[in-house]
Amino acid sequence: MKKVLIFLSIFSLLVANDKSDIENLINEHWESWNSSKYKAYISTVHSAGTMNGDSNGSFWYKMVPTIKGLTDNRKPGDKSDFNARYIEIDVLVPGKAAVAYYYLVGSYTLRGVTKSDYRTRVSQVFVTEGGKWKIKSGHFSPLHSGSGIPD
Asked: pTM for the full model?
Protein backbone atom coordinates (compact mmCIF):
# COMPACT_ATOMS: atom_id res chain seq x y z
CA MET A 1 0.00 0.00 0.00
CA LYS A 2 2.83 2.36 0.88
CA LYS A 3 4.40 1.82 -2.59
CA VAL A 4 1.08 2.63 -4.27
CA LEU A 5 0.79 5.88 -2.31
CA ILE A 6 4.36 6.86 -3.20
CA PHE A 7 3.68 6.11 -6.87
CA LEU A 8 0.47 8.16 -6.84
CA SER A 9 2.25 11.05 -5.14
CA ILE A 10 5.04 11.05 -7.74
CA PHE A 11 2.51 10.69 -10.57
CA SER A 12 0.48 13.65 -9.23
CA LEU A 13 3.62 15.77 -8.96
CA LEU A 14 4.62 14.95 -12.56
CA VAL A 15 1.16 15.85 -13.86
CA ALA A 16 1.13 19.11 -11.86
CA ASN A 17 4.56 20.06 -13.27
CA ASP A 18 3.40 19.22 -16.81
CA LYS A 19 0.30 21.38 -16.39
CA SER A 20 2.34 24.31 -15.11
CA ASP A 21 4.89 23.97 -17.94
CA ILE A 22 2.14 23.81 -20.58
CA GLU A 23 0.28 26.82 -19.17
CA ASN A 24 3.54 28.79 -19.23
CA LEU A 25 4.13 27.67 -22.83
CA ILE A 26 0.65 28.82 -23.90
CA ASN A 27 1.21 32.26 -22.39
CA GLU A 28 4.69 32.51 -23.94
CA HIS A 29 3.25 31.45 -27.31
CA TRP A 30 0.73 34.31 -27.42
CA GLU A 31 3.04 36.91 -25.84
CA SER A 32 5.60 36.14 -28.58
CA TRP A 33 2.96 36.44 -31.31
CA ASN A 34 1.62 39.74 -29.91
CA SER A 35 5.10 41.26 -29.77
CA SER A 36 6.12 39.91 -33.23
CA LYS A 37 8.93 37.86 -31.71
CA TYR A 38 8.60 35.16 -34.34
CA LYS A 39 11.71 33.22 -33.34
CA ALA A 40 10.34 32.85 -29.80
CA TYR A 41 6.91 31.96 -31.22
CA ILE A 42 8.42 29.23 -33.40
CA SER A 43 10.23 27.81 -30.37
CA THR A 44 6.83 26.96 -28.84
CA VAL A 45 5.72 24.71 -31.73
CA HIS A 46 6.90 21.28 -32.81
CA SER A 47 9.80 21.35 -35.29
CA ALA A 48 7.77 19.24 -37.77
CA GLY A 49 5.05 21.91 -37.76
CA THR A 50 1.46 21.91 -36.61
CA MET A 51 -1.90 20.97 -38.09
CA ASN A 52 -4.44 23.74 -37.51
CA GLY A 53 -7.97 24.87 -38.16
CA ASP A 54 -8.51 28.61 -37.67
CA SER A 55 -11.43 30.66 -36.36
CA ASN A 56 -12.22 31.85 -39.88
CA GLY A 57 -13.64 28.41 -40.70
CA SER A 58 -10.65 27.43 -42.85
CA PHE A 59 -9.85 23.89 -43.87
CA TRP A 60 -7.14 22.11 -41.89
CA TYR A 61 -3.69 23.29 -42.89
CA LYS A 62 -0.13 22.53 -41.91
CA MET A 63 1.83 25.41 -40.42
CA VAL A 64 5.53 25.12 -41.18
CA PRO A 65 7.50 26.65 -38.29
CA THR A 66 9.59 29.22 -40.17
CA ILE A 67 9.65 32.99 -39.90
CA LYS A 68 8.93 33.25 -43.63
CA GLY A 69 5.94 30.92 -43.27
CA LEU A 70 4.57 32.98 -40.38
CA THR A 71 5.06 36.37 -41.97
CA ASP A 72 4.24 35.76 -45.67
CA ASN A 73 0.70 37.11 -45.28
CA ARG A 74 1.46 39.75 -42.64
CA LYS A 75 1.18 43.36 -43.72
CA PRO A 76 2.66 46.51 -42.14
CA GLY A 77 0.27 47.53 -39.37
CA ASP A 78 -0.95 43.99 -38.66
CA LYS A 79 -0.95 43.40 -34.92
CA SER A 80 -2.72 41.50 -32.19
CA ASP A 81 -3.31 41.51 -28.47
CA PHE A 82 -4.43 37.95 -27.68
CA ASN A 83 -4.65 36.55 -24.16
CA ALA A 84 -5.41 33.00 -23.05
CA ARG A 85 -8.09 32.72 -20.36
CA TYR A 86 -9.50 29.84 -18.28
CA ILE A 87 -6.84 27.34 -19.33
CA GLU A 88 -7.68 23.69 -18.65
CA ILE A 89 -5.08 21.01 -19.31
CA ASP A 90 -5.51 17.25 -19.51
CA VAL A 91 -2.22 15.37 -19.32
CA LEU A 92 -2.78 12.19 -21.32
CA VAL A 93 0.67 10.66 -20.83
CA PRO A 94 2.86 12.42 -18.25
CA GLY A 95 5.88 14.03 -19.86
CA LYS A 96 4.73 13.05 -23.36
CA ALA A 97 1.21 14.10 -24.44
CA ALA A 98 -1.45 16.55 -23.31
CA VAL A 99 -4.44 18.55 -24.51
CA ALA A 100 -5.29 22.10 -23.46
CA TYR A 101 -8.60 23.93 -23.75
CA TYR A 102 -8.94 27.67 -23.26
CA TYR A 103 -10.47 30.88 -24.50
CA LEU A 104 -8.37 33.29 -26.53
CA VAL A 105 -9.62 36.86 -26.24
CA GLY A 106 -8.41 40.26 -27.34
CA SER A 107 -8.11 42.37 -30.43
CA TYR A 108 -6.33 42.45 -33.75
CA THR A 109 -5.67 44.55 -36.83
CA LEU A 110 -5.26 42.57 -40.06
CA ARG A 111 -5.01 44.19 -43.50
CA GLY A 112 -6.40 47.45 -42.13
CA VAL A 113 -9.39 45.86 -40.37
CA THR A 114 -9.47 46.25 -36.59
CA LYS A 115 -11.62 44.10 -34.32
CA SER A 116 -11.73 44.45 -30.56
CA ASP A 117 -14.11 41.54 -29.94
CA TYR A 118 -11.88 38.56 -30.72
CA ARG A 119 -13.25 35.68 -28.63
CA THR A 120 -12.38 32.15 -29.64
CA ARG A 121 -12.38 28.66 -28.11
CA VAL A 122 -9.04 26.90 -28.50
CA SER A 123 -8.02 23.28 -28.15
CA GLN A 124 -4.39 22.33 -28.67
CA VAL A 125 -2.43 19.10 -28.62
CA PHE A 126 0.98 19.14 -26.92
CA VAL A 127 3.81 16.64 -27.17
CA THR A 128 7.34 16.72 -25.90
CA GLU A 129 10.28 17.19 -28.20
CA GLY A 130 13.81 17.18 -26.81
CA GLY A 131 12.37 17.12 -23.29
CA LYS A 132 10.26 20.27 -23.79
CA TRP A 133 6.55 20.68 -24.38
CA LYS A 134 5.64 21.83 -27.90
CA ILE A 135 2.36 22.62 -29.66
CA LYS A 136 1.56 19.96 -32.27
CA SER A 137 -1.98 20.86 -33.34
CA GLY A 138 -4.62 23.50 -32.74
CA HIS A 139 -8.29 24.13 -33.42
CA PHE A 140 -9.88 27.56 -33.05
CA SER A 141 -13.61 28.31 -33.23
CA PRO A 142 -15.21 31.71 -32.59
CA LEU A 143 -17.42 32.14 -29.55
CA HIS A 144 -20.98 33.40 -29.91
CA SER A 145 -20.95 37.13 -30.77
CA GLY A 146 -17.16 37.14 -30.99
CA SER A 147 -15.20 37.67 -34.15
CA GLY A 148 -12.80 35.12 -35.51
CA ILE A 149 -10.01 36.14 -37.86
CA PRO A 150 -10.86 37.11 -41.44
CA ASP A 151 -10.16 34.75 -44.36
From this structure: 0.85
